[in-house]
Write a structure and sequence with these properties.
Shape: globular
Number of helices: 5
Number of strands: 6
Radius of gyration: 20 Å
Helix content: 25-40%
Oligomer: single chain
Mean pLDDT: 83
Length: 183
C-alpha cells in the first residue's frame, strides 16, 4: 500500500511539474535582437523607446515582451487611497486594449539621468525621466524616477521589475538623481 501511494504521489508530482514547465515555457519570450539586451544601457534605452508612442498609438508591447521577463512586474505610482496596480507586459497591453490606459495624447519619455549599481548578474538602475505628449512639446508634463531591476542570464539582460514615482511639489527630484553617475 505504501508503495502504491508513493507511486501515485510521484506520478502526480511529475505531471504537475511537467504542466508547470509547459505553462512557463509557453509564456517565455524569444530573445530580442541582441542590440536591445546586450547591455544595461541598451535595455534601458529599449524600455523607454518601447513605452513611447505617438498620439493615438500604443506602446510597442512585442518589444517589451522581448526585454521584460515573462513574470516581470510593472508597478506605477499610487496615491495613499489606491491599491498598487501590478502588471506584467500582457496585463499592461490588456489595460491599453480595454481603454483603462490612454494613448490618445501620446507619450514620449526620455531619460535625463541615470545611476547604476551592479553586482555580478544583478543591476539596479535609478533612471530619471521626463515625459511629453509629443516630441515638439516645449515642456514635460511629468518628471520622475524609475527603479529598474535587471538580471543577466549569462547571454543577455532582462528587466525583472520597473517601479517609479513622479515629481510633485512635496516630492521634488533630489539633485543627486539629476546628474548621471554610475557607481
Amino acid at each position: 500500500m505504501k508503495r502504491t501511494a508513493r507511486g501515485v504521489f510521484l506520478t502526480f508530482a511529475l505531471a504537475a511539474t511537467a504542466d508547470l514547465a509547459a505553462a512557463q515555457g509557453a509564456r517565455r519570450r524569444e530573445p530580442p535582437a541582441p542590440a536591445d539586451a546586450a547591455s544595461v544601457e541598451s535595455i534601458v534605452a529599449a524600455y523607454y523607446s518601447a513605452m513611447s508612442h505617438a498620439p493615438g498609438k500604443t506602446p510597442d508591447f512585442e518589444r517589451l515582451r522581448g526585454i521584460v521577463l515573462y513574470v516581470g512586474m510593472i508597478v506605477p505610482p499610487k496615491t495613499a487611497a489606491e491599491n498598487f496596480t501590478v502588471s506584467d507586459v500582457d496585463a499592461l497591453a490588456d489595460r491599453y486594449q480595454k481603454g483603462k490606459e490612454t494613448s490618445a495624447a501620446g507619450l514620449i519619455e526620455k531619460e535625463i539621468a541615470r545611476r547604476i549599481d551592479c553586482f555580478g548578474s544583478v543591476c539596479h538602475v535609478f533612471s530619471t525621466y521626463e515625459a511629453r505628449h509629443t516630441e515638439s512639446d516645449a515642456r514635460p508634463f511629468e518628471r520622475g524616477i524609475r527603479s529598474l531591476q535587471l538580471l543577466r542570464d549569462g547571454k543577455r539582460w532582462w528587466i525583472a521589475s520597473v517601479t517609479w514615482d513622479v515629481e510633485k511639489p512635496d516630492n521634488p527630484i533630489p539633485s543627486q538623481y539629476l546628474e548621471s553617475a554610475a557607481r
